[in-house]
Amino acid sequence: MASIPLIVQHNGQLRGVIRAYDDFGFKVFDLAAPPRRLTGSEAALPLVEAQVDGRRVEPLVSPANMLETGPLGESWMALTQRSVSRLFATYLVSEDPQRRLDARKASTLMHQVSLVQHVLEQPNLSRVLLADEVGLGKTIEAGLLIKRLVEDRPNLRVLYLAPARLATNVANEFREKLDLDARVWIAGGGADARLSSDRLVVASIHKAVFGANFQAVVQAGPWDVLIVDECHHLSDWGADGGKPTQAYRLVDQLSQSLPPDGRLILMSGTPHQGSEVRFKNLLRLLSDRRADLSLANGRVVFRTKDRVTDWRGLPLFPSREIRPPTPIALGSLYEEWYDSVGDLYDSFIIPGTRGRATGWAKGQALQWAASSVQAGLGFLCRLGIRRLGWNLKNQALRAALSALRPYRGGTDDENLEDLLLRIEKQIGIDHSEDSSGADVEDVPEEEQDWRPDPAALERLLIQGVELVNSPAAYAKWAALSQIIDAADGEKIVFFAQPVETVGVVARYLAQTYGEHPSTIIGNQTDKERLEQVAKFQSESGPRFLVSSRAGGEGLNMQRAHRLVHLDVPWNPMELEQRIGRIHRFGSRKTVIVDTLVVAGTREVETYRIAREKLRLITRQLDPEQFELLFGRVMSLVAPKELEECMIELRPDNLPAASNEIGALVANGYKAWQEFDERYRSNAQQIRAQSGGEATWVDVANFLRLLGAAKLGPNTSQTRFEFQDDEITAVDEDLPTLRIGERLFACGDSGGLPPNPAGGEHVLQLGLNVPAVATVISNAFLSTPLCGAGYLKRPTAELGLPSGPVGVLFFLRQTVRYLGERAAEERTTLHSFVISKEGQSALSASQQASLIRELINAGRVRDPASSSLVELMQEAEANIADQLRRLDDIDMQNRVRHVVWPLAALVMV
């Protein structure tokens, strides 16, 4: 192998040799283009050219041999200068593997960019589940991954499936923060994607599974990358994967049609959903052999907020303060009504099923009645319309609809006929291709035959009207005012399940505090929903945001650090999703969570019992750890079983129900421990990744030496640090560089725009900024070829042998074959000291220190012949051979190493 040239010229382009072999007596080469980040405009050329006729390849002299041949048409000082510059440019790129020195509109968070690097470098992660905790920024992680893949393959086709209400927001983040040309495929007028031809399509999965759209999405392929956001909505209830929903079937079919080098990325902050069967079927999508789930275990990346840090090792997220629930008594009339709502369903029980009607439907009716009187009354009205076919001839329904006005965005005096038509339309909205944003009841097929007792339902409607006009309908909001007043003017997010509660609270806040809050409800368009969030997030926007369950996923509300649960969803994962809207990157203070509950309802007792049971299990934890763990454990409690316990929770059945809840909490804790232990290994590998040795100071020195950059006035950059358990804003100075007419901040701004300097606009610097990338490319592709040099020995103590020494630098480019295509996996810089005593490899930190000294070391004008040259020539060939050599893992993963000899420098 030593006789094989390392670098060649082909069609006027610099190429590295992957391998050379005989083909019927002719020498044939497989060649690699230089690393893309080093060559800029070269990125359009193919990475690998196979079976190149050796007669069209010109071997180039290596740096060690250049020490013997000497410079051609220039002085040794000029050649040495170009050689060191080329080495410096290569060092910046190769010692920035996670691209933390790139400029981005989005924050360059360590846990995000290191994840991307990990996924790209691990061959087994072509199928992966990103299960990072809610709020860690999985959308940005997916976007960064897409950006890296597209850089390597501009013609890549990506399909990103998201719930309908999130699709537009995802596309906007891709466009605005990552400069990705994402097109949207959703129901309604907001779509701009051509499914059959666009490269990056963000599609509503609800539209994709609707009618003929299913086959249209499949036939629009082939897709190279399939990403599924909030993948916990993919359900298959069969123990062996035999009962899939349409969404699961679609993703399964698309994933099986991916090319050999295709990628499947599943994302969810709550993937388990408390159902081991559903979770295992989700893992089947990751397994190359569906029956063998062990193949999927290493493909789950799971990290929690308390385990991620910033580049300086400081925590990124503040803590949580989960306050005990505030119970509010609404009086005996309300309690009688609430119990009667449950009794309505107990009259119809299907033998052997534990009462399907008394299960799902009763549970939701009680949730709505506990949220607000108006929500419970609205639920009962829709029940009569849907199940009994009632119209305005029914006087109880007429009275209830009159009392509910303004209903879901209507007016105080809305015509009752119009209101009835609107409700009938809303009841049927779950049959459309864009149903995910609606706040309506889901109706399982097994419930269709059940009919409530008409007389009992009429009595409940009449009682509900009486309650709406009584203090009981507003007692909860008086307690809410105490929480608001104690918040001292800070922004607050309120969450409720039903949209009726959102409307009632929004009107109460407007009347009491004199400003209309932002509101999120299901029948809004994506644009309207994003506008409401943007208003709230702005400094001058409304103080309050009130959201139904439609805002529980995918939206960013971290301008607030206070959240109030206006009710308690019976699926505990929804609680975590709610808190994740404000407890995410950008949260600046301890997140404070309050909960309002109605005394005497099942929610109060259930969560009191659950907390007591978990405290017994985790007595060794401090309070802060307990609150973190409580949310995580409850997210792994089976929702259906918990709901059954809540339905059965009555004063006469309290001990039995308490034991059942305790068993569920114990199982949830066990599931949490197993999940955490099994899937933590990937997180530890990611955290252990090196960010490289290159620094912003190195970037500044490089640009001042080679890019004609000049120091500019310092700008200030707002950073955030923990002080007394809160994140506090701290202004720090940040140096600037003037390149041409523009001023750049030379440092990590965390994705935030640098402040103006002396009234002048400041841009973010980065290795990917065109002005910088051009300097790097020019240095690496310097012509004529360089690499040799003679320098005066640095005065700094570097631990080098005494006397003259030589240093050989190599760039190793790792290429992995994916099907018939090759992809660049990583580049690493290697250096070796050569002396009469032998040779030794430098560590990454030693290498960085030496390169920084070489930049300013004196050049030798007329070097004398050195006995080191022959040693360096021999060492160069041997070391290159070692660096190219493949091991068993390389062979298994179809990896090849291309070795670029960069520099042979003699220090005297």
From TrEMBL:
Pfam families: DEAD, Helicase_C. Keywords: ATP-binding, Helicase, Hydrolase, Nucleotide-binding. Residues 119-289 form the Helicase ATP-binding domain. GO terms for molecular function: helicase activity. It comes from the Bacteria. Gene3D superfamilies: P-loop containing nucleotide triphosphate hydrolases (3.40.50.300), Tandem AAA-ATPase domain (3.40.50.10810). Residues 479-629 form the Helicase C-terminal domain. InterPro entries: DEAD/DEAH_box_helicase_dom, Helicase_ATP-bd, Helicase_C-like, P-loop_NTPase, SNF2-like_sf, SNF2/RAD54-like_C. PANTHER family: SNF2/RAD54 HELICASE FAMILY (PTHR10799). This is Superfamily II DNA or RNA helicase. It comes from Bradyrhizobium ottawaense. The lineage of its organism: Bacteria, Pseudomonadati, Pseudomonadota, Alphaproteobacteria, Hyphomicrobiales.
